[in-house]
Amino acid sequence: TGIKLDQTTASVAEGKTITLTATVEPDNASNKTVVWKSSDDSILTVENGVVTGKSGGAATVTATTEDGEFEAACQVTVLIPVAGITLEGPDKVELDKSVSLTAVVQPENASNKAVIWKSSNENVAKVNDQGEVTGVAVGKARITATTVDGSLTAELEMEVVQAPKNQAT
Question: What is the DSSP string of the chain?
Fold first, then answer.
């Protein structure tokens, strides 16, 4: 009387595989053969329940009983993994001032470009969630941006300098 998949939604990284399992009921069904199909072979392919991510996007995997009477589907998202990260911006900030750094995540179409910002010494330089660095005390601190997907890290040595004094002429 039908067919079930072990997942109705799933994700797989580009170039990787996941396995979906189809269960045909009842247990004593005479024909338990399942036909697998991808709604878009350019995004993902499926063979005997093994789903291979081809390119970023989403497609539906359908498992149909051989007689065509029953089917079950799973929406699969193919994720593009992060391949690299670099930091752009100045390497100096004046005391009590702020500068912005930008984390450039590659490739451009990576699925999750979010980064976590950290300072090696918050008593010298603080950094917020947007990459804005504030000079707290004269000295040096290493600012790092780590990708949420892939745990790749880029770092920049930030120097906090005294603001130049206004000189009377």
Answer: -EEEES-SEEEEETT-EEE--EEEESTT-S---EEEEES-TTTEEEETTEEEE-SSEEEEEEEEETTSS-EEEEEEEEE----EEEEES-SEEEBT-EEE-EEEEESTT-S---EEEEES-TTTEEE-TT-EEEE-SSEEEEEEEEETTT--EEEEEEEEEPPPPPPP-
